[in-house]
Write a structure and sequence with these properties.
The protein is α/β, with parallel strands linked by helices. The chain is built from 14 helices and 13 strands. The chain starts with a helix and ends with a helix.
Length: about 325
């Protein structure tokens, strides 16, 4: 009985603190037609302190969605256009000689912002990708011999185009794993497409998106998200899903054994739990249910499963493997 009272009180707390979610959704809808899953994914990343990788063909409002979200929050925003000739110093900064002071001083790069849009991230070589690793994982940057803390909140939202292979570099596995979510963006439905046409040919002056939240309020919301109740049965469910990506035969999925090169790391389990909590928060609920885990499982796991040559030869995707796992693992 005591636990049910706690859950009720927690629900009221979440209901009170998650009211801004509706305002952000409404603000995003002013600029983005449809793409509800994309908007929810951006919010999950923001509330869970996790980075997001968006993949889709050009023209699906990936960059626009990220810019709109950063406009709705009164925060520093920077955009880095990744190109093959980009250098690590162009991202994190470098030491420059100051004639006035007669010494070298650190010039901080565009990564020193709350929201960093890494546009077409797979166009830059490995040397530049490695410069982002420390920033994404440790929330700090080392220039020369000095380490600088990055501002809070700090969120890298990267886009990549899956159809063009010329002049692109596959992201290192170590970096891909640092993205909490990998979100696949698809074409809009036909009625949404008509609305997009209407919106873009009839609008005169663009409506300027005004901030509705501060970074301090985001930090406070994150503290509340950490209070969302995660039952032991849900923890077990998350662990089972991740373990099924490593040893599928133990979960009655023998047909997947030859298709998976490597499964999700403990980072996958942590991110599944964090994202499920944030998803429950977005739905104004104070506790996580199995449907929350299922809703975000594809985004958390699709980039963490390594496929074998056999899988690629059979045209089996990580997407299909995750679907089979969540359909097979017993729901608590």
């Amino acid at each position: 009985m005591a636990e049910s009272i706690d859950i009720r009180a927690l629900n009221e707390l979440i209901e009170k603190h998650s009211s801004f979610v509706t305002n952000i959704m409404t603000g995003m809808e002013q600029e983005i037609v449809g793409q509800k899953h994309l908007v929810e994914s951006l919010l999950i990343g923001l509330l869970s302190d996790g980075h997001i990788l968006l993949e889709g063909v050009p023209g699906l409002a990936k960059t626009k969605a990220i810019k709109t979200l950063s406009s709705l929050i009164d925060a520093q925003f920077s955009r880095i256009q990744f190109t093959p000739d980009l250098l690590p110093a162009d991202v994190v900064g470098t030491m420059i000689y100051s004639q006035k002071d007669g010494q070298f001083v650190a010039k901080q790069g565009p990564v020193f912002a709350n929201f960093v849009l890494a546009d077409e991230i797979n166009r830059a070589p490995a040397k530049v990708q490695s410069a982002l690793l420390e920033a994404m994982q440790e929330r700090q940057v080392t220039i020369s011999t000095t380490t600088y803390e990055l501002p809070k909140p700090f969120l890298v939202m990267a886009t990549q185009n899956p159809i063009e292979q010329e002049g692109t570099y596959p992201l290192p596995e170590a970096q891909v794993d640092r993205f909490m979510l990998k979100v696949m963006i698809d074409y809009p439905k036909i009625d949404e497409e008509k609305k997009i046409i209407r919106q873009n040919i009839t609008q005169g002056d663009k409506v300027k998106v005004k901030p509705i939240m501060s970074t301090k309020e985001i930090e406070e919301a994150r503290d509340v998200v950490r209070q969302v109740y995660l039952d032991e049965k849900i923890e077990q469910y998350i662990a089972d899903i991740v373990f099924a990506t490593r040893t599928p035969d133990k979960y009655g999925l023998k047909e997947l054994k030859g298709l998976i090169g490597f499964g999700g790391s403990p980072r996958a389990s942590i991110n599944l739990a964090l994202a499920a909590r944030a998803y429950a928060f977005i739905k104004h609920r104070g506790y996580v249910i199995p449907e929350d885990v299922r809703a975000i499982a594809h985004d958390v796991l699709r980039h963490r499963i390594g496929l074998t040559y056999e899988a690629e030869a059979s045209n089996v995707t990580a997407e299909e493997i995750v679907s089979k796992i969540i359909n097979k693992v017993e729901v608590p």
